[in-house]
Specification:
binds pyridoxal-5'-phosphate, 13 strands, 7-stranded mixed sheet, alpha/beta, 4-stranded antiparallel sheet, globular
């Protein structure tokens, strides 16, 4: 380790979302002529499978050319975009008297940046730890680690993925090495696809004001369930949303926080001055203007998801759950150790990228073609595996 680097960083490895290596290796082991035909279905990062429609892509291209002066720094205050987002959030939460304004919004280079800003603003300098319920979005823990912030883990029910609220309550009330300052939840959760339960929301509402509650609604446009209307009543809540999923803008990196103006202004303090490139600001504003058209693909994705789930339910070796988002979580039931990993590797070799996490598989819903190809491959892999009871004891 380099002598000037913080010692705790030697435990960390860089986060590389797409396992580019393993996908590339498909080409090198496959026959040369076949490698050109190999299609990689990227069903591992929960984006929309659809790029912008051609006419909108062109229009955005022109808008970028017209509006942006390359020699000038971006708008560092993001005012116009914040205003447009506030309007969208009010609308999306059915808040007709428009209580949320630009002052309730802070923008990040993806919501990942906002997660880091929240950690910097709350727990840094050994002032606190964070609480997460596993399995959940890995970025909270990863970013906390890079800042030397401890992470307190509680579990979820293996059947329903409901948070162990008793353990969570103990974690926040019993003295920890550092007190829990932030609770992170995803609504609906990734990788498991379940929305917050009534009991979980009640617990979050009852948390004391010295704990910040972060509700990550990255999949809101798929779930259509939001707690945005609660922001007015809870000065210790932050809701995170993103343009990376349903809005089809993952390449542009725009996320936003919705919170009490006092929290929003703290997030503004700790972020980098020009965190959002001009192209990203223009693209996000453009996406909001054209939201009806961009969000039109959602019903079809949800229908594909439900068909996907129904098909997997017929596989005796796969346990599968309902999902409120654009991905499906399934856990193989098998006596073969590491069966999830085996399925994951096998799909990967065939050109289907998914996530293998917490002993299960998280599969993003793609285009109908990608989905049926994936189902076909998955069923083939699982179907050629004997049922646990039929397995010879020396297997
Ligand atoms: C995809 C995702 C995000 C989005 O991150 P960006 O940095 O905005 O792309 C945030 N939270 C969760 C739970 C996600 O799944």
């Amino acid at each position: 380790m380099l002598p000037f680097i913080r010692s705790d960083l030697s435990q960390l490895t860089a986060y590389i979302p797409h396992s580019q290596d393993s996908l590339d290796s498909v080409d090198s082991v496959g026959a040369k002529q076949e490698s050109e035909l190999l299609v990689v279905d990227r069903l591992d990062t929960n984006e929309s499978p659809y790029d912008l429609p051609d006419e909108l892509k062109q229009e955005l291209g022109w808008a970028l050319q017209d509006v942006i002066k390359s020699n000038r720094y971006p708008d560092g205050g993001h005012y116009a975009l914040k205003q447009a987002i506030a309007d969208y959030v009010n609308e999306s939460a059915g808040l007709t008297h428009s209580p949320l304004t630009a002052s309730h919004i802070s923008l990040g280079n993806g919501s990942d940046e906002l997660i880091r800003s929240i950690l910097i603003a709350t727990c840094l300098r050994s002032e606190g730890s964070i609480l997460v319920a596993d399995p959940t979005f890995s970025m909270y823990g990863i970013l906390a680690q890079t800042l030397g912030i401890p992470v307190v883990h509680v579990t979820r029910s293996p059947d329903t993925f409901a948070i162990d609220l008793q353990a969570a309550q103990i974690a926040i009330t019993q003295p920890q090495q550092l007190p829990v300052r932030v609770v992170f939840v995803v609504h609906p959760n990734s990788p498991t696809g379940n929305a917050l339960t009534t009991a979980e929301v009640a617990w979050l509402k009852a948390l004391p004001n010295n704990i910040l509650v972060v509700i990550d609604e990255a999949y809101f446009e798929f779930s259509q369930t939001t707690l945005a209307s609660e922001i007015q009543h809870h000065p210790n809540w932050v809701i995170l949303r993103t343009f990376s999923k349903a809005f089809r803008l993952a390449a542009y990196r725009v996320g936003y926080a919705i919170a009490h103006p006092q929290i929003a202004s703290v997030l503004e303090k700790v972020r980098l001055p020009y965190n959002l490139p001009s192209i990203s600001q223009v693209a996000a504003q453009f996406a909001l203007t054209h939201r009806q058209k961009l969000l039109q693909t959602i019903p079809q994705i949800l229908q594909e998801r439900d068909t996907f789930i129904t098909t997997l339910q017929q596989q005796p070796l796969l346990k599968v759950w309902q999902s409120q988002a654009n991905f499906v979580f399934t856990v193989p039931v098998s006596e073969t150790p590491g069966f999830a990993e085996i399925i994951f590797q096998s799909l990967n070799r065939q050109g289907t990228a998914i996530r293998c996490i917490s002993g299960g598989l998280r599969i993003t819903i793609g285009t109908p073609t990608e989905n049926s190809r994936t189902l076909h491959r998955l069923i083939h892999i699982v179907g050629s595996t004997p049922l646990p009871s039929a397995m010879p004891s020396n297997a």
